[in-house]
Amino acid sequence: MDWLIEFPSLGRRDLSTLRQTVDDGFRTFSRAFGESLEAFFSPLLKFLIWFEHLLTNAPWPLVIGAIALLAWLGSRSWKITVGTILAFLVIGYFGMWEDTMATLAMISVATFVCIAVGIPIGILMARSNIAQRIVTPILDVMQTIPSFVYLIPVVMLLGIGKVPGLLAVCIYAIPPIVRLTNLGIRLVDKDVMEAADAFGASAREKLFGVQIPLALPNIFAGVNQTIMMALSMVVIASMIGVKGLGTPVLRAISNQYLALGLMNGLAIVALAIIFDRVSQTYGKRLQAYRESGHD
Amino acid sequence: MTDTTDTTEVKVSIRNLYKIFGDNPARALEQVKAGMGKPELMDQHSHALGLNNINLDIPAKGIQVIMGLSGSGKSTLIRHLNRLIEPTSGEIWIDGEDVLAMSSEQLRDLRRFKMSMVFQKFGLLPHRTVLENAMYGLEIQGVAKGEADERARKWLERVGLAGFEEQYPSQLSGGQQQRVGLARALATDADILLMDEAFSALDPLIRTDMQSILLELQEELHKTIIFITHDLDEALNIGDSIAILRDGQIIQSGDPQDIIMRPADDYITDFIRDINRAKVVRLRSIARKGATGQGETLRGGMSIEQALPKLTRAPDHTCPVISRTGESLGAVSLDDAINALKPLESESDDEVRYA
Q1: Is residue B160 a contact partner of residue B148, using CB atoms and an 8 Å limit?
Q2: I need a surface site. Which of A69, A186, B140, B271 has the fewest CB within 10 A?
């Protein structure tokens, strides 16, 4: 009755052959396609480096001014704008300016990539039930698989550096924007869609004139979530060579530097709060039409 | 409302139209054609019979009311005219064109230029202002912005919404929102106006208000209006012609006076029992052909309510009646008028009431 106690598994040798075959296969694949993939991502890398240089080399008052302006345009709130300026002043004063700029560049580009890729996928999912059935489980995997697991193939393919880091961040951060775009479009009032149909609107006119505008609050919630998740990946991304606020945190973990870890961690929190408040108030302003005297 | 329904050109013609909802409508259709009714089809084949052999000619430039209770298929029927719902079988002709043979581009043009629609739940775009909503159809038609703006403003003014252009729909009352819906539909200049329970969501006072607005506009626009309602008073108030739908079938169709005076079956008799006959029965329906009277000459379109004081004043309590074009329709006596106020009794009436 051994087989009841011991789970009948593949033999040790078979298992190791299996693993080796998969590893070798992937290695061959990355040798064959690694370079072309790198070439494919090189414009993104150039843009990322350029943006980071812009942020770190420009005079700091100018950068803070630009960030404050964006915060004001997004939120139209003095409180949030002043809070943003103060947060950046404190960050700079505590010597974290360069790391913060690197993280800011990374998060901005990652968010941009997620929006550019995620919204079209969300639209596709909303229009086709088949697409929804295929994409949903992929998103589930992306959200639940431990980040370290997909770091392995990413590093095998692209090595260590900014692009694999960006990719890892995007894999983790893209699901909310895809899901909420899909949801937002599917939740658009059927009566309004029927009216658009009855007036002869084409599929394109319905998408851009009715569905996307009405789904915007949800899409914006997705953007907000995506930014938050991208920020939470900063430390893990620093393990594969992304510079920024994650690097000192990593150093603090291995050397038990409490203060260093805390300072950089709080800087990440400050960035998160700023992004969150600005994008949320912007999202709310987008639906000003919902405020009303009647139902 | 007109005195007589002139026999004019037919604008929309519906022939042998069937709609069955379910997994295998083609097979269910055979059963229905073999005589199976709505409840049996549901029980035995779990298919819902939406429309059952609808035949209807809708004259141009009049208001055709399609009336029925909820579930009778009236909203399904109106959605077939612009193919928001595809029929299971049958034909729909508009201005001599076969709607079901249209390609998707032709269909889009039909919806853009020839028909516009007003919805029970308004269907306004919540993110656009009142003016932008009224412009929606024009924008889809491709009308230049300046002209669309001007035309939309004109129609908003016509429905009494001048000054509300920059508001959002959610800032308006239900009645005002439906005026926006009406302005949006009228702005496209389509000949045919589909109104799906357009006033049913409004409270009674606003509803009669909207009915008068519609009738006033119709007096000068002469559109072909297809109006769905479950409210008999509304149907009688605005309809030039009424079709009554029950379980997906038309059970009576024609002149409203005909329906009041000669209901086709007990169902309709029950339906019309509670109406105020003094308001809806017209003299032309009760005039005795060839008779004359000494009272004031009255128009055939006058209601009994309006005629009673005049009949009482006439020396012989009888007044001659003429049509809109001046032809004699006979005469009406006070007794005739009073008799016409008595509700018709259906044959199964006693059972219904005292069972």
Answers
A1: no
A2: A69
